[in-house]
Specification:
Layout (H helix, E strand, L loop, with lengths): L11 H16 L11 H12 L15 H9 L7 H14 L3 E6 L4 E6 L1 H8 L11 H4 L3 H8 L3 E4 L11 E9 L6 E10 L7 H36 L6 E5 L4 E3 L18 E3 L5 E6 L3 E6 L7 E5 L7 E4 L2 E3 L3 H12 L6 H9 L5 H15 L3 E2 L4 E2 L2 E4 H10 L3 H7 L11 H21 L2 H8 L8 H10 L5 H14 L2
Parallel strand pairs: 11-16
Antiparallel strand pairs: 1-2, 1-5, 3-4, 4-5, 6-7, 6-10, 8-9, 9-10, 11-12, 12-13, 14-15
Length: 490
């Protein structure tokens, strides 16, 4: 009786009778005189009895109440797959007096529909929403055995361990998530022994493969978006080994030689992973995955910021332009000015003042990390890369009193439109230092460079100084006197 499916037997009644006799013989502790149950069923019976399942159980146990099913289903991944499953199988199941069932990975029924009289009959054994059909709960059955064996199965009549299920047959197939490799749940068509044809397992299996193909397509679309969004992080490694890894551990870009396989085992904590070749790699978190890079021999990334002057708002990460919102430019300014890092509370205070909310600051950091990835660390928030910024350079030049360099670098105030309290203070301090420095030490050329900026062209003190130090026939002196006259005109 060791065949792939009981549908190969031409006479279901004869086969069912033989199964009943074999069932009672095996449960009575005797060896069957002929062939025993199929290997699949024999292994399932053994697991079920070791779990303590009572063959005289009347019904599957209740896992959760009917009032909770809607909420549980809506939050489960199988919910999004229901239209595809129902659209493929429900009409056939209903027309053949069967019921269609969808469960979670533990075998708990999330959804059921089909032939109404059959569903009323199914209620008596708990073949309904909220009931638990895992092998450990109700023994050998289509759902539980398909999930345990991780393959499509057909369980016919007395192949069920529990006697109350002998009038039933079922065809089931698990759904495996191609992204995580984990089982999401199971689809099952059940009916009375005469109503459900054994060949229905082929239809159920085909539907399961269709659902998995749909999941694979969605996974590949996510992978494409991840590669486009974070390819610059791979380029920033400058030839050093590295890869883009999904949040589930799949390697989707960078490891062209496939030295690390298609998947890496993500650590439960920490940022280090041991590769198949024994080397240690670091996982730098991105918003929807990781950058995998070797722990040794890597070069630090370089973040270049140009935030001085109106219209000068740009960020560059290892040669790749990074578009920034004004708020994100403010955050990068604050992190660059505070290399030891800022807590969410400190960042909120610097950005919004006393009315700020740390939750808002955390949300902005999360969005910024989707742009820059692992160069922003947490606890506290800080930049882990080399930072080159025009406003930091200006600070250094002022400290070293390099007047000509100050005049050449300064193109205007730091983020002139920012109202963030800490940015405004830094802007006003830099502006004051630059003006004082140039008025005290600047040459006519230095002063004119400053007066030629948008924010220096109407600075009365600088214009007066230019008029005093330049020859009266110098065009710059003429321009300075004309601007002063305009300022003095009511």
């Amino acid at each position: 009786m060791r065949h792939s499916r009981p549908g190969a037997v031409p006479d279901p009644d004869t086969f069912s009778t033989r199964l009943h006799r074999m069932h009672e013989t095996v449960l009575g502790g005797e060896n069957p005189t002929g062939e025993g149950p199929r290997d699949l069923i024999s292994a399932s019976w053994r697991r079920s009895m070791e779990a303590g399942v009572d063959p005289d159980s009347a019904s599957a146990p209740l896992a959760f109440g009917e009032e909770d099913i809607g909420e549980i289903l809506s939050s489960h991944p199988m919910s999004a797959l229901l239209p595809l499953v129902a659209g493929t199988l429900l009409q056939t199941a209903s027309a053949s007096a069967n019921v269609l069932i969808v469960t979670d990975a533990d075998g708990r029924i999330l959804w059921r529909d089909g032939d109404r009289p059959t569903m009323r009959r199914a209620d008596r054994v708990g073949l309904a929403g909220g009931f638990h059909w895992g092998e450990r709960a109700i023994g050998t059955n289509g759902v539980g055995t398909a999930l345990a064996a991780r393959r499509p199965v057909h369980v016919f009549s007395a192949e069920h361990l529990v006697r109350a299920l002998h009038i039933w047959s079922c065809s089931a197939a698990p759904i495996t998530d191609p992204d995580s490799g984990e089982v999401l749940g199971c689809i099952d068509v059940s009916g009375t022994t005469r109503a459900l044809h054994p060949a229905s397992v082929t239809l159920v299996e085909t539907t399961a493969r269709l659902v998995e193909s749909h999941l694979t397509l969605r996974m590949r679309e996510r992978d494409d978006r991840l590669r486009v969004r974070h390819d610059r992080h791979l380029r920033a490694l400058r030839g050093e080994p590295g890869a883009l890894v999904t949040a589930t551990g799949r390697v989707i870009a960078g490891d062209r030689a496939q030295r690390w396989g298609g998947r890496v085992r993500l650590p439960e904590s920490g940022d280090r992973v041991v590769l198949p070749d024994g080397r240690t790699a670091l996982l730098d978190p991105l918003d929807d995955g990781y950058l995998l890079r070797l722990a040794d021999g890597t070069r630090p990334a370089v973040l270049t910021l140009s935030f001085l002057g109106a219209g000068h708002l740009s960020a560059d990460l290892d040669g790749a332009r990074v578009p920034l919102s004004p708020r994100h430019a403010e955050i990068l300014t604050l992190l660059a000015l505070n290399p030891r890092g800022l807590t969410a509370e400190q960042l909120s205070l610097h950005l919004y003042g006393d009315e700020g909310n740390p939750v808002t600051a955390r949300a902005e950091i999360h969005r910024l990390r989707s742009q820059l990835g692992p160069v922003i660390a947490a606890r506290p928030y800080r930049l882990t890369c080399v930072v080159e910024a025009d406003f930091l350079d200006l600070r250094h030049l002022l400290a070293r009193k390099e007047t000509a360099q100050v005049a050449r670098l300064y193109g205007g105030p730091l983020l002139p439109h920012s109202e963030a309290p800490a940015v405004r203070r830094e802007r006003e301090e830099l502006e004051s230092q630059v003006r004082s420095h140039l008025l005290l030490r600047g040459s006519p050329d230095d002063l004119w460079r400053y007066a030629d900026t948008e924010y220096g062209r109407n600075d009365a003190h600088v214009l007066e100084r230019l008029g005093a130090v330049l020859p009266r026939d110098d065009h710059r002196s003429v321009a300075a006197r004309l601007r002063l006259a305009d300022l003095e005109t009511p």
